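User: Please check token order:
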Amino acid sequence: MKQIINLKIDGGHYTAKACMVWCFDHRFSGKLLKEFIVDGGYLKRDPIVIAGGAKDIATPEELTDRDYVLRQIAKSIRLHHPPHVFLMTHANCGAYGKTFENPEEERAFYESELIRAKDITEKYLKEKNLAEGLEVVPLYADFSGLYQL
């Protein structure tokens, strides 16, 4: 095996500031996410970066997709004890493959998806006894910024 980067990494255990379910679309996982991480102080975080972000919780193509994402969130909580779980969706999301008549219709659709994802996540975490002291926070991104529901 050939080492391609020589970097000493702190091997100690950490507590995450957040678990983040985020879309891999670079328009929203680049500068916007970096700004959110820095502004919120979420430098130690557990990212779950997948197509559509919270889509696989709200409306998965396969139920196994939802189960997988929820299990990843649960692992983050068990291992790194984040106080926040951020669930993100965004405008013009290819994973959804939907078109909208206007921005208000689009925003309303994604808000309903986020509310559904939040409810499902909270129910799952309560069933697993992982919800105590945890805040599940829905976030919506569009081309002008990031919004908390």
Summary: The first strand starts at residue 18 and ends at 23. Strands lie at 18-23, 45-50, 84-90, 135-142, 145-148.
